[in-house]
Automatic annotation (TrEMBL):
<feature type="repeat" description="PPR">
    <location>
        <begin position="334"/>
        <end position="368"/>
    </location>
</feature>
<feature type="repeat" description="PPR">
    <location>
        <begin position="158"/>
        <end position="192"/>
    </location>
</feature>
<dbReference type="Pfam" id="PF13041">
    <property type="entry name" value="PPR_2"/>
</dbReference>
<dbReference type="GO" id="GO:0003729">
    <property type="term" value="F:mRNA binding"/>
</dbReference>
<dbReference type="GO" id="GO:0005739">
    <property type="term" value="C:mitochondrion"/>
</dbReference>
<dbReference type="Pfam" id="PF01535">
    <property type="entry name" value="PPR"/>
</dbReference>
<dbReference type="InterPro" id="IPR002885">
    <property type="entry name" value="PPR_rpt"/>
</dbReference>
<dbReference type="InterPro" id="IPR011990">
    <property type="entry name" value="TPR-like_helical_dom_sf"/>
</dbReference>
<keyword id="KW-0677">Repeat</keyword>
<feature type="repeat" description="PPR">
    <location>
        <begin position="123"/>
        <end position="157"/>
    </location>
</feature>
<protein>
    <recommendedName>
        <fullName>Pentatricopeptide repeat-containing protein</fullName>
    </recommendedName>
</protein>
<comment type="similarity">
    <text>Belongs to the PPR family. P subfamily.</text>
</comment>
<feature type="repeat" description="PPR">
    <location>
        <begin position="193"/>
        <end position="227"/>
    </location>
</feature>
Length: 491
């Protein structure tokens, strides 16, 4: 495997490389047909079959881009394939590989990989990667034990490991432990970074200590080693919004606008979202105009964000106008943008308008996704159109989610539909729905089977195989249903 160092963030000019190498940069090849999971996997398989060479920096850059887009399986497959081809893996590469294993195959597989690493690789990078995996999976005992092990080994600890631990404590609702970690960092002279300050402020906000949040902000400014950035002010604004302090939130958003010198698209979108949460429609439109000026070729994701905000602010005419503008300009008809308006129409009972948008999307080559069917599903249940609702469930399950995972109806939806069949004594409808449900749900559970038993009983029908089905599904129903089962399924 040819290797080449990356200097000052620049990459090698790939236009002059030999025919043994891939004709284009690897990440361009993988994203040639889009960034969805299926397309990326297909392009990756083509590249691996071709046996074309690539530079090591390309592999690292491509894995980073795949991780950014949450395409963990292709990233891991690429890393494994390149290792088999003889690419030298640095300790940093091994730490990334460990993280990909955890995301793709689970913590146990990542632990086994860590154990098998040579001792020379078990430094702060690989320990830190495993610690981060534990923290993401909310495995507090393992995370704390590993952190103590890292201290015992005298590994060079940075804010990154402490940040992982503090994020864990925030997620499991233990903000007091975050504050204890901050004190430990200060005592150990561990320099905080921007993320440290942000998670510290969120921990204080979690215990409604807004004045404490402001003290942290002041400390950050006084210290001077870490400059407040876009993330800092967006975090502060979000805290103020959640606390109902709209005036302070808008002041923070003004600061955020001032430092957005690079005209970052994500910052514009965050401003629109947060101004929307303060209820300031005028500011939403003002920032939207600025975004449009900065990005004349406005991406679909920005239209999606804007329409969602306008819908939440009950500005349906504005949302329709924005949608019409997007529809007339877009090169790729993104069903997610259509869904944002579909949802508003369905919620307001404007099903004809919703159906019209769905049809226009179809004509433009955009197929309904699971969310589309979910929108119509909610409307049909609300209006008692159970047949259409079941069709929506079937379609959503058949399509699945965009990331390749299964779409599973909520328990609320399942209860609503089973409750209807039970009330109407519709055994065939209930059984038909269960057949659809089994395509997405491995464990249907006792509650659903109890409803099915009651449906059979109220309809006065029997089902000789039902008791066997319960045994095969390893389901134990409650006592009232056991008595009904003696009638529905006599032994």
């Amino acid at each position: 495997m040819a290797a080449m160092p990356m200097l000052r963030g620049r990459t090698k000019n790939i236009g002059k490389r030999s025919k043994k190498y891939l004709e284009e940069a690897l990440y361009y090849k993988l994203f040639e047909d889009g960034s969805d999971e299926v397309s990326v996997r297909h392009q990756l398989n083509q590249f691996l079959r071709s046996r074309k060479r690539v530079y090591k920096w390309e592999v690292g850059d491509t894995i980073r881009k795949l991780r950014d887009r949450k395409r963990y399986y292709p990233a891991l497959k690429l890393s494994e394939a390149m290792a088999r081809r003889g690419m030298n893996m640095t300790v940093s590469d091994q730490a990334i590989h460990l993280d990909l294993i955890a995301k793709t195959h689970g913590i146990a597989a990542a632990e086994n990989y860590f154990i098998d690493l040579p001792e020379t690789s078990k430094n702060h990078l690989c320990y830190g990667a495993l610690l981060n995996c534990y923290c993401k999976e909310l495995m507090s005992e393992k995370a704390e034990a590993l952190m103590e092990k890292m201290k015992e080994l005298g590994l060079s600890l940075t804010s990154m490991s402490y940040n992982s631990l503090m994020t864990l404590y925030t997620k499991i609702g233990k903000p007091d432990k975050v504050l204890a970690v901050i004190q430990e960092m200060k005592a150990s002279n561990i320099m905080p970074d921007s993320y440290t300050y942000n998670v510290w402020m969120r921990a204080l906000a979690a215990v409604d200590d807004i004045s404490g949040v402001e003290r942290v902000m002041d400390e950050m400014k006084r210290d001077g080693r870490v400059a407040a950035d876009c993330t800092t002010y967006s975090n502060l604004a979000s805290i103020y919004v959640n606390a109902g302090l709209s005036v302070k939130a808008e002041k923070s958003l003004k600061e955020l606008e001032k430092i957005n010198s690079s005209r970052d698209l994500s910052v514009f979108q965050f401003l629109i979202t947060l101004y929307g949460q303060t209820g300031n429609l005028l500011e939403v439109y003002r920032v939207w105009r600025s975004l449009r000026l900065a990005f004349p070729q406005t991406p679909n994701i920005s239209y999606l964000n804007m329409i969602q905000v306008l819908v939440k602010l009950k500005d349906l005419p504005g949302a329709e106008k924005c949608f019409g503008e997007w529809e007339s300009r877009c090169s790729t008809y993104d069903i997610r943008v259509a869904n944002s308006l579909l949802g508003a129409y369905a919620k307001d009972g404007l099903l004809e308008k919703a159906a019209e948008i769905k049809e226009r999307a179809r004509r433009r080559g955009a197929k309904p996704n699971a969310k589309t069917w979910e929108i119509f599903l909610d409307h049909h249940i609300k209006n008692g159109d159970i047949k259409s609702a079941v069709d929506c469930v079937a379609n959503a399950i058949s399509i699945g989610r965009g990331d390749g995972s299964k779409w599973i109806p909520s328990m609320k939806t399942i209860r609503s539909l089973m409750g209807h069949f039970e009330q109407e004594k519709d055994v065939d409808g209930a059984e038909g729905f269960l057949e659809i449900l089994k395509k997405a749900v491995d464990d249907i559970g006792a509650e659903v089977f109890e409803s099915l038993i009651r449906t059979y009983a109220s309809a006065g029908r029997t089902s000789p195989p039902l008791r066997h089905r319960l045994k095969m599904e390893n389901v134990e129903v409650n006592e009232p249903c056991k008595k009904l089962l003696d009638v529905v399924c006599p032994e």
